[in-house]
Amino acid sequence: MRKAQKREVIISYERSGNSTLMIITDAETSEIISQRWLNESDKKSGRPPDKANLNSTYFVKLYKPNLIQIATERAKEKRLTLDEAGLFLLLFSVAGWQTPYIVNPDTYKLMSCSEIADFLGRDRKHVFDLLERLIAKGMISKVINGNGRSNHYMINPNVAFYGKTIDDPTHLDVFKTCPYEPTKYIDYKKTPDKKK
């Protein structure tokens, strides 16, 4: 059994011409977890495919074996309290399309703790405390942006996901060594690039 621990990551971007190098590093050890070149795209992160079609139905997938595991966890330090489970459920309403990021459904921008609290109409300090507890239990991950910029959050895609494919498979690496070890790891295929 591997030893899991709380993990915070730093995602940095280095621009070169029309491409950007994205580097995911462990915030504590500075170990590079993943890196890859990104090409410019006009697609906004977390945006569903057809926002204008109000008759469209979208689903956030919950993976039942992993959800049962979370609900029936016997170890007190791993079990979600009702407050934690409640916030975790509410975060599904701001799950980004084909990304584990928490995204504002109106602006399609990544959300900070304050923005999540404002969007949900909840107390910021209470939301912050619950987010930290969910991070410690591996349900979400904090992305530290540094340089005075707000941190962002990702939902563990082994528990819930919005979409069939993932825009950036390297985001899955963040959850490979988190405190939560799912009954079943979910394998996502990369979202095909749009033909221009």
Key features of this structure:
globular; five-stranded mixed sheet; Arc Repressor Mutant, subunit A; 4 helices; alpha+beta; 196 residues; 19% strand; 20% helix; two-stranded antiparallel sheet
Describe the 3D structure:
This protein is α+β, with helices and mostly antiparallel strands. It contains 4 helices and 7 strands; from the N terminus they run E-E-E-E-H-H-H-H-E-E-E. The chain has a domain at 57-175: Arc Repressor Mutant, subunit A (Orthogonal Bundle). A 5-stranded mixed β-sheet has the order 3-2-1-5-6. A two-stranded antiparallel ribbon has the order 4-7. A hairpin with a 5-residue loop joins strand 2 and strand 3. Helix 2 packs across helix 4 and helix 3 crosses helix 4. The radius of gyration is 17 Å and the shape is globular. 28% of the residues are buried.
Give, in spatial order, the strands making up the sheet with the most strands: 3-2-1-5-6
Pattern of helices and strands = EEEEHHHHEEE
Our count of helices gives 4
Anisotropy-based shape:
globular
**Span of the ends, CA to CA:** 47 Å
The CATH architecture designation of the domain at 57-175 is: Orthogonal Bundle
Low-confidence stretches: 40-44, 52-56
Measured on Cα atoms, how large is the radius of gyration? 17 Å
Number of strands: 7
Helix residue percentage: 10-25%
Which fold does the CATH topology of the domain at 57-175 refer to? Arc Repressor Mutant, subunit A
Strand content: 15-25%
